[in-house]
Amino acid sequence: MSNLKQSQVCNLPPETKIVGKWHKRPYKIVKELGNGATGTVYLANSPEGLVAVKWV
Fold first, then answer.
1. Can you name the residues that pair with 29 across neighbouring β-strands?
2. Closest CA to 45 of 23, 24, 28, 32
3. What is the pLDDT along the chain (56 residues), one digit of tens a residue?
4. DSSP notation for the chain
5. What are the residue ranges spanned by the domains of the chain?
């Protein structure tokens, strides 16, 4: 694992569409909720409703 500085964290803009790694479900980013040492958490729309998605 690499140590990233705050400025090196990947920021996903709202409306970005991603596909989940494990369940292969589509997600549409709504907004960033927070970030820390191991990644950033986003609020996203999914087929099941609003979810929190961690982006490493």
1. 44
2. 28
3. 445 454 455 789 999 999 999 989 999 999 999 999 999 999 999 999 999 999 98
4. -----GGGS--PPTT-EEE-TTT--EEEEEEEEEEETTEEEEEEEETTEEEEEEE-
5. 6-55
